[in-house]
Description:
This protein is α+β, with helices and mostly antiparallel strands.
Amino acid sequence: MTTEQPAITAYLKPVCGWSAGVRAVMDKYSLDYEDKDIINNAANYYEMVARSGQPLSPCVVVDGRMLADVSGEEVEAWLADKGYIQQNNLPTPVPIDRACPDELHAAASVTFEE
């Protein structure tokens, strides 16, 4: 297992079940990361699309490797598989494997002109 803190950038929505799951995984393993708001900052959204090649979030970049359109559960499994963390069963304050309710999801949709 690697002992160095990886460089992590996460392209996330402020209110989103998937984004909350990614944040929960980062907190669960005390991983430092840059949280880039793709709803309130158009430049962050366009950067995410350019880097990932697609418009869906969350997207997480770990040491230069893009994980596009992922859940917290998928990020956790990938980090464990690559030796960045030793996976554990500690609880998280939010689910790491699901979207938020439909009304919250609709309210947090990206509406920038492309």
